[in-house]
Design a protein that fits this description.
Structural class: alpha/beta
Mean pLDDT: 88
GO molecular function, one term: ATP hydrolysis activity
Radius of gyration: 24 Å
CATH superfamily of the domain at 234-297: Alpha-L RNA-binding motif
Largest sheet: 6 strands, mixed
InterPro entries: AAA+_ATPase, ABC_transporter-like_ATP-bd, ABC_transporter-like_CS, ABC_transporter_ATP-binding, P-loop_NTPase
CATH class of the domain at 234-297: Alpha Beta
Domain ABC transporter: 7-241
Number of strands: 14
Keywords: ATP-binding, Nucleotide-binding, Transport
CATH topology of the domain at 234-297: Alpha-Beta Plaits
Protein name: ATP-binding cassette domain-containing protein
Length: 315
């Protein structure tokens, strides 16, 4: 039995208009995935991958070229009003009138949604984001972290079942990042489905139940976070040996070994299963004379490559 779906995206394409008859940039290339209800869903990818374009489509700020999307069961085109009421968006940019107080920011936003004064939650939301003591301060006097938290409260004024945070911790310090993580976790514990876009693998590991990866406008993975993180726990050893080689060494501890030149190859291994020293000893046992070695951790790009090769292999 499948999980209830909070957001459903099917074959979404976005091509921006080009200049002077030129074909515009293809930002999304037929993306499809579901966001299950009740969890924290990570949407990962480098800057420019298409994450924000997708979020802006859900928010109604960008018109998709083709495909369909629904929010809490409401089609974003045919049931636009209900779809918008089911989602709260926290943008990357800090945007609100600097001369309003936090309380006024929330009251005005509630008014835009037609929420009766008796049903507004402004005081409650200010307490939830630890801004009750700044209730009557001008928004322009708030620190960057306070402004981020106010944006989250603003997105929740209409009590949406889904909250989307677009790169909420980009450019913030470690302490503020931890505070935002705690706030997101608390909202999820209270029953809100959270979608988090980020290019920080650590953030996804700490917070998300499931992760989708977008790269160059394409969805290249949609996996439970644990599977994703395990792939990022690989290490890579680049080896230069004496004399030309035609075949790379092989061993069960090597996740992958690829020739990269006439005298060079790269071995990928899981750092929970072996050390660099063990890997190099195994190489020498197979008759190779090592001239030079460099090691590096797998980064997000390596995870992209690994997941793409898994998909192409039919796994």
């Amino acid at each position: 039995m499948s999980e209830p779906t909070a957001i459903q995206i099917r074959d979404v394409v976005k091509r921006y208009a080009g200049d002077k008859g030129q074909e515009g940039k293809l930002a999304l290339k037929g993306v499809s995935f579901d966001v299950p209800q009740g969890g924290i869903f990570g949407l990962l990818g480098p800057n420019g991958a298409g994450k924000s374009t997708l979020i802006n489509i859900l928010a109604g700020l960008v018109t998709k070229t083709s495909g369909t999307a629904s929010i809490w069961g409401f089609d974003i085109d045919e049931q636009r009003r209900n779809a918008k009421r089911a989602i709260g968006i926290v943008p990357q940019e800090i945007v609100f009138d600097p001369f309003f107080t936090p309380y006024e920011v929330l009251e005005n936003q509630a008014g835009f949604y037609g929420i009766a004064k008796s049903l507004r939650r402004s005081e409650e939301l200010l307490r939830a984001v630890h801004l009750a003591d700044k209730r009557d301060a001008y928004a322009r006097t708030l620190s960057g972290g306070m402004k981020r938290r106010l944006l989250i409260a603003k997105a929740m004024v209409h009590s949406p079942p889904i909250l989307v945070l677009d790169e909420p911790t980009a450019g913030v310090d470690v302490e503020l990042r931890r505070l935002l993580w705690e706030l997101v976790t608390q909202l999820n514990d209270d029953g809100v489905t959270v979608v988090l876009t980020t290019h920080y693998l650590e953030e996804a590991e700490q917070l998300c139940d499931r992760v989708a990866i977008i790269n160059h406008g394409e969805l290249i993975a949609n996996k439970p976070t644990r599977e994703m993180v395990d792939m990022a726990r690989e290490k890579i050893v680049a080896v230069t040996v004496e004399g030309e080689i035609s075949k790379a060494p092989e061993h069960p501890l090597f996740g992958k070994c690829e020739l990269t030149g006439e005298k060079t190859f790269e071995i990928t291994y899981h750092k929970d299963e072996a050390t660099a020293g063990q890997v190099l000893a195994l190489v020498q046992e197979q008759g190779f004379t090592i001239e030079d070695v460099t090691t590096r951790e797998a980064d997000l790009e390596d995870v992209f490559v690994s997941l793409t090769s898994v998909q192409e292999g039919g796994a």
